[in-house]
Amino acid sequence: MYISGSKNAIDTGDSYFGEIAEEPIAGSTEAKRKLIREDIRRLPVAGGKPLEARIEHARFIVDCPNCNSAEFYFDDKLFYCSLCHNSNVGGKTHKVKVPKNREKIETILGKRPIQNRHWREPETVDDLENENTLNELVS
Ligand SMILES: [Zn+2]
């Protein structure tokens, strides 16, 4: 069973389900289905501010603004909640934003044990570096 963060510093839905889909386990069928995003990309996009992705336990995730569930972030930058189907915006998708310095954030977090890889706005790269230093993680 693939554990988020064990191959990549931080996993997205694309990389996580990509790994699970390759495994000879019951969940691989569902993982393959999660990787098919064409139906989601065909949906209209709701207006308003994009949702902010965050990192929790080496996973890039997006909190659902409607039902408080969360989904993996996907690199198509579209959010569609599998639980409530974005019913608050008539089933349209939400745009998602990730930080411009995402790679740097992932590199810094990658030095930590998986259970300590967390990030959310407005934490900066300096904040994360300082936390690593306080925890004596050599860069
Ligand atoms: Zn939801």
Structure description:
Strands 3-2-1-5-4 form a 5-stranded mixed beta sheet. Helix 1 runs antiparallel to helix 2 and helix 4 (102-109) runs parallel beside helix 5 (125-134). The protein has a domain at 38-130. The protein has helices at 13-21, 27-35, 38-41, 102-109, 125-134, and strands at 51-56, 59-63, 70-72, 78-79, 94-97. It starts with 12 loop residues before the first helix and ends in a 5-residue tail after the last helix. It has 139 residues and is α+β, with helices and mostly antiparallel strands. The relative contact order is 0.17. The chain has 5 helices and 5 strands. Strand 1 (51-56) and strand 2 form a beta hairpin. The mean pLDDT is 96. The structure holds zinc ion (ZN). Zinc ion is lined by residues 64, 66-67, 69, 81, 83-84.
What best-fitting shape do the alpha-carbon axes yield?
globular
Strand content: 5-15%
Structural class determined from secondary elements: alpha+beta
Uncertain runs are: none
DSSP summary: helix tally: 5
Strands of the widest sheet, in order across it, are 3-2-1-5-4
Number of strands: 5
Topology as a string of helices (H) and strands (E): HHHEEEEEHH
Straight-line N-to-C gap? 29 Å
Q: Report the major sheet.
A: 5 strands, mixed
Instruction: Give the % helix.
Output: 25-40%
Q: What number is the mean pLDDT?
A: 96
Q: What Rg is obtained from the alpha carbons, in whole angstroms?
A: 16 Å
Bound molecules: zinc ion
Write the layout of secondary structure elements.
Blueprint lengths: L12 H9 L5 H9 L2 H4 L9 E6 L2 E5 L6 E3 L5 E2 L14 E4 L4 H8 L15 H10 L5
Helix pairs in contact: 1-2, 4-5
